């Protein structure tokens, strides 16, 4: 038995809040009858319709991909380039990425068909910590690292506090490898943050997403999340994990 709004959200139809609105507006039917009570519980055998369309109920699936660079974080691409869902031909559910990694960024990406789960992880207020390793042109000074940590001014506003650490320096090539931990998920944020302090990114990889890492995986590999990991992620996103 599951609450009706949860079933609608899990089917990827709408967020849980939107599902509640649809129920209150009388747009949801269970076994042919309009249901307006939010507490209503349904089982797998109940026929749910939302705005006249039967709800396709899919088993939720949660996978972690070590995305190679040169792959689009989308479910399809107009130009026929490889997309992240191409790595999961055996998954019949319609999964999609939780947020995105740039075409030329590699690393840890989650995919799911659970709309509610994806929404809570991406909610700007509850964004979980993400850890990136960047190779940049030049060797940032201590002051520049502090700037990154305090927040830099980007065209869409100042970035939130972050952690930055130099991992290694190649003086001959004048490059540097750094770790940057952030909570936000703005478009091309890490590249733009380094650009803003004058050190353009040459290579970027997401090593960690909350407590998840890429251990045991090679580029292009994937694995299912365990039910415990899914629970932990939900709890983290809901209760906050700010540094
Ligand atoms: N920041 C970036 O600049 N690119 C990514 O892919 C992810 C974070």
TrEMBL record:
One of its GO terms (molecular function) is RNA binding. It is an enzyme of class 5 (isomerase). SMART domains: S4. One of its GO terms (cellular component) is cytosol. This is Pseudouridine synthase. Residues 2-63 form the RNA-binding S4 domain. Its EC number is 5.4.99.-. GO terms for biological process: enzyme-directed rRNA pseudouridine synthesis. InterPro entries: PsdUridine_s_RsuA/RluB/E/F_cat (IPR042092), PsdUridine_synth_cat_dom_sf (IPR020103), PsdUridine_synth_RsuA/RluA (IPR006145), PsdUridine_synth_RsuA/RluB/E/F (IPR000748), PsdUridine_synth_RsuA/RluB_CS (IPR018496), RsuA_PseudoU_synthase (IPR050343), S4_RNA-bd (IPR002942), S4_RNA-bd_sf (IPR036986). Keywords: Isomerase, RNA-binding. It comes from Bacillus weihaiensis. Belongs to the pseudouridine synthase RsuA family. Signal peptide: none annotated. Pfam families: PseudoU_synth_2, S4.
């Amino acid at each position: 038995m599951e609450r009706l709004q949860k079933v609608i959200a899990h089917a990827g139809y709408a967020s849980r809040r939107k599902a509640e609105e649809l129920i209150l507006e009388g747009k949801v039917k269970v076994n042919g009858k309009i249901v307006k009570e939010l507490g209503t519980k349904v089982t797998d055998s109940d026929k749910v319709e939302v705005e006249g369309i039967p709800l396709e109920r899919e088993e939720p699936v949660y996978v972690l991909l070590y995305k190679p660079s040169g792959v689009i974080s989308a479910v399809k691409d107009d130009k026929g380039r490889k997309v992240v869902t191409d790595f999961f031909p055996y998954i019949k559910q319609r999964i999609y990425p939780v947020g995105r990694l740039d075409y030329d960024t590699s690393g840890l990406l989650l995919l799911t068909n659970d709309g509610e789960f994806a929404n809570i992880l991406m909610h700007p207020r509850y964004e979980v910590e993400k850890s990136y390793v960047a190779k940049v042109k030049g060797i940032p000074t201590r002051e520049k690292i502090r700037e990154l940590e305090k927040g830099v001014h980007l065209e869409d506003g100042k970035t939130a506090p972050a952690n930055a650490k130099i991992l290694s320096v190649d003086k001959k090539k004048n490059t540097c490898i750094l770790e940057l931990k952030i909570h936000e998920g703005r478009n091309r944020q890490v590249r733009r943050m380094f650009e803003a302090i004058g050190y353009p990114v040459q290579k970027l990889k997401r090593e960690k997403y909350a407590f998840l890492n890429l251990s045991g995986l090679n580029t292009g590999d994937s694995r299912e999340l365990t039910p415990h990991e899914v629970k932990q992620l939900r709890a983290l996103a809901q209760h906050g994990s700010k540094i």
